[in-house]
Amino acid sequence: MTAPAAATHGVPSPDPTPRVSAMTWVSVFVRTLAIQGSWNYETLLGNGVGFVLEPVLRQLPGGVHSDAFKAAMARESAYFNAHPYLTSVAIGALAKAELSGVPPERIERFRTALCGPLGSVGDRLVWAGLLPFSSLVALIAFGVGAGPFAVLAIFLVMYNVGHFGLRIWGLRVGWTRWLAVAGALANPVLRNGPAYIARAAAAVAGIAIPLTVARVVGPTRRPLLEGALLAGALIAVGLVRVHGRVEGWKLVLVLIALFALVSVSVAR
After folding, report:
1. CA 255 to CA 231: how far, in whole Å?
2. Alpha helices in the chain (DSSP H)
3. Degrees to nearest 5, angle at CA 78 with 128 and 85
4. Residue 114's closest CA among 148, 143, 139, 91?
5. pLDDT in tens, 66-85
């Protein structure tokens, strides 16, 4: 027989090898989709982190009415700033740290150390990579004749497959690596992915812009189309010149604004 767990003031010690049920993980994942719902200028994503972790923290010794649960909720709801999708890495790691009885001081230092890496990696991978790439692929679909709903569906499927997968991966790797999760951020996908996605987005942009402009101007406005192609070539040269100086998402916003202006002028 195994020895009973040690007790502190009548409360069992946390399990050194905790387990979380599948339904609890489902609840945690669903809550990650709303992690920005309580964003504020004081704690940023902190309240959201506490909200997401709450189903797991119920397993602490004594349950929801214990001092351990209340202290953990207060600790996990404190200031936290990172990319909302990659916050799932921290969620998985913090869940295991809390259930394994890691000292509160160490958990707080760990939370603070995760903010910077999870923020910078997520911004480059998602805002400067996945989002522009998905938008440009949807523009290609529009350029070859797809209808509005098909274009929207293509964008939503591509983008959501990427960010759902990132959230699920984050929870898994955070739970399995927990206090050593920093090494997972050196994953080749996270380290080199933004550069590869940026190159792919540049190639896709070279296809998407002419096709989109061609559809907007129509077959009866050939001179305007030729001018648009020339403008596209100049834009391509400009993109090469600013490579590495300007973030990709800013360039995409400029291109979308130009596209909207051209569309409005042509419609008139």
Report:
1. 11
2. 22-32, 46-57, 67-76, 87-99, 104-122, 131-143, 148-177, 188-217, 222-242, 248-267
3. 25
4. 91
5. 999 999 999 999 999 999 99
Whole-Å CA distances, 107 to 42, 52, 90, 104, 111: 20, 16, 11, 5, 6
CA dihedral 74, 76, 80, 85 (to 10 degrees): -140
The pLDDT tens digits of the residues spanning 176-224 come to 988 888 777 777 777 788 888 888 888 888 888 888 877 877 766 656 6
Eight-class DSSP state of 176:
H
CA distances from 266 to 126, 141, 177, 226 (A): 33, 20, 55, 14
Is the pTM higher than 0.90? The answer reads no
